[in-house]
Amino acid sequence: MARPGGRSARVQASVHAAVRDLEAERGREALTVPLVAARAGVTPSTIYRRWGDLQELLSDVAVERLRPDTEPADHGALRADLAAWAEQFLDEMSSTAGRAYIRDALLGDPDGGNAGQCSAYAAAQVDLVLDRARARGEEGIPARETVMDHVVAPVMYRILFRPDGLSTAYARHLVESALDRRARD
User: Which residues form the HTH tetR-type domain (predicted)?
Assistant: First the structure.
């Protein structure tokens, strides 16, 4: 069992930093397990034992990079909060870097754990927005899964398979549809 903040955490932090630094210096194509290990100050067997292969390591790094840095902004009303969050989510995930992180997170994810973690990040952000609306006493707040199914899922689908037409207007349209849907449910 790994201790939080113990050797395992230090190894993960140094290996992740090595991946980020080497990718910035040499490009992704130049990354190898021995190169990352040397930069991180660990043996290649440490990386193979913990991550299995380079793709799984890149997936782990991508998941960490997809973790939100901040809470969603509070604009004082559910509609405004959710629209602003959806626009930011679409912007970050559809950026060149965001698409690369999504690709890496999914490619090195044989058991689906990384995809689940990325979904949990989005769900936690949606929960914050919905909880704020509840705390303000707003009514007709949709369930988290309604927002996930009608805002997050279409954004991710479009990013992965049909990236044309991604815009803030599209994000706002999805939010309006999700909020209108809750009135019909």
Answer: 9-69
Cα–Cα distance, 72 to 78 (Å, whole number): 11
pLDDT tens figures, 4-41: 567 788 999 999 999 999 999 998 889 999 999 999 99
Fill in the DSSP letter of residue 150. Answer: I
Q: In this predicted structure, what is the pLDDT of residue 5?
A: 61
Domain 69-184 sits in CATH at 1.10.357.10
Cβ(121)–Cβ(88) under 8 Å?
no
Taking the C-alpha atoms of residue 43 and residue 128, their distance in angstroms, rounded to an integer, is 41
> What pLDDT does 48 receive?
95
Q: For the whole model, what pTM was predicted?
A: 0.83
Between CA 9 and CA 26 the distance in angstroms is: 25
Domain borders along the chain are 7-52, 69-184
Instruction: Please state the CATH superfamily assignment of the domain spanning residues 7-52 in this structure.
Output: Homeodomain-like (1.10.10.60)
In this structure, are residues 19 and 36 in contact, taking their beta carbons and an 8 Å threshold? yes
**CA–CA separation, 106 vs 85, rounded Å?**
23
- Give the chain's radius of gyration (CA, Å): 19
